[in-house]
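Q: Got a minute? One more chain.
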Amino acid sequence: MGKVLELLRKMYEWVVTLLVLVILVFLIYLSSRTTAVLTQSEHLLFIKETFIFFFAVILASILLVFISVKNQKISRIIAKINSDDVLYRKLRKWLTIGLFGVCLFWVLNTQMIARADQIEIQEASFRIHLGDFGELLPDGYIGAHSNQMGLMLLSYWFSFLFGSQNYLVFQIINCIAVSVIYLQLAGFGTVLKMNNFGKLLVQVSGFFFFPIIFFTSFVYGNLIGLALSLCAINLEYAFFEKKNVKYGILSAFLIALAAMVKPNFSIFMIGMLIYGAITIALNKSYKAAYYLVLILLFFCIQSFGTRFLFEKMSGIEMGDGISPYAFAAMGLQEGGLGPGWYDGYNDLSYEMVKYNTHEQRQMAIWNIKDRLRFFADNKDEAISFFTRKTAAQWVEPTYESLFILNEKSDYAVKYSEWVWFITTVYGGAVLTRLGKVFQIIVLAGALLYLILVRRTDEYYKKLTLFMLLIGGFVFHFVWEANGQYTILFFILLIPYAVCGYKYLRAIMQQSAVVNIKENVNIPMVIVVALLIILFSVFYSVRSEFLTADSVPYYDYVAQSKNEVVIPDGKYNICVDSGKKLTAVPDSTKEYAFDDDDRCMYLELGNEGITVQIKNYHGRVRFYIPEKNLYLQHDGEKIKAADYKDTVKQLFIIKESSEPGKYYIIPCQKGIDTFDERKNVTPERCLGYDTDGNVIMMDDGESPVKWEFIK
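A: Always. Here it is, folded:
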């Protein structure tokens, strides 16, 4: 029996290792060929990646490791941290507090207001306080999206303490979750036999992986669920090592709670069950099998208990909502936004069958079979689709975090220029490049780990997070594509990456000639080389789709960078005739400084008035300092009025075909992003009539061109 168990252990280790190896090499290959980017309107673009950049990042990371070996001061610091546990614990504490502080700084500077699914959940939990359970009906949001029921329950409990829709407190809890996530990832370093300095590096990486920091603004269960899951995993290790019942109970409870917050964490739960079963079998500690029962028990309690609770509170018998098959069907569709991306299929098909889950399931199964037949008959299309889908989720360096923060989001504050820069297309392009560097370093480091790690009898213990990566990769290969979920699996690679560079450093420290056989897993190197050759040959004539959007993307970024057409400053604004923009009092009322409704009307005259231009978040305000008034468009005639926080005092300046002449276009609701602003045309713009009054010109009239003179 012992030999059988040993054989099964080795089989498990080799299967997981080889699958992870294939995934990592594939992602590294894709990363060297392409970078996926999201536009502000959530359209995916695939741009060409240069091998020089990719190679330079790898070389730079190896160079940093080399410097850490050769620099005596750095070596002494590392040795001191590794040998002094008191110093290590102090640094660990300050890094945890520091990361929380960075996240809190971000949250307080943005204070993003929930939208889309986030606000649907928050509003549904508030309506329960009013005795309104309409969202639990089959056509309600929660009735349809029953997977959000757990987060709604958590939000409902949350509201008793902090009030409903208190987004800021939820975001602060996300900040705590981020600190816990990196603390737990560093804790996993103990399983990997990582030294103190390596564990601190895992925490330090949190300051550089900006998508996780940005996601603290996201009023959703992703970060909270990940923090709970990682705590549960480390408690599972503690349970089997120390045989302490309380660790087992707490571990089972936390993973069930994580799955309640976000059902995606059921993948983590399955991974924990697999690890637990293997450990019990190998150690022959069959009494510990109650731990597996506890996990399943707590999971069933939260799953069925949440539904039971809402049904008792509401008196409504809830249905099953949207069928999971609908998400798989959507994940196989070529949507308008991207391959497998959300296209509304799950919601629309649910409405089409009158909220009948069984009928939707049958429809989705038929759509899945139809799509698979199409792929079978069109193999090149299948290769293109699944390659682009994988790249869109795993080789998009921001993991959709910048899209979530874009200009269409609402914020409780008028955020500063540096935050505005981050939300812009050009700022996003800069952060995408920085994110790409981090992505390459982590993928390469994780691959180094597999090549350099020495396999012991307890090697299977070190594979748990790798096993979860496999689960996440396979799941999202067929499910709806979404970077905000794949990031939860990518971050699991960080401890392995740190370990990989630690092993590389250890090899560099050897004074004698390196014994290749002793330090490097030669079979792994051969497999990696063969995989790289295989992918290179296979995609040599099939990779056009990975670089198809390079030129449009760089044009898109350049347009964003040049969005400020007229720089801030004071100008006289005039037209071809030489007439200048001026302001005259409203003839219908006595003009007085203390009038509550002060206003002047604009017209053309020989003596112009100085207008101060201020570009703000992609739009322009026209301010008349002499009168302390702002240009405003809320009628046929354009006027100058007191400051109002309204779109009626915002304009867009567009270049015309004639150099030095521009259109002045009034902003309207719905023109919130660069994608929307760049498509605005001068069909409705500022002009003037025969009497010289500045008016709003509509379709059918020749648009007026204006000049700005300093």
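A: The CA atoms of residues 123 and 441 lie 41 Å apart.
Q: Perfect, thanks.
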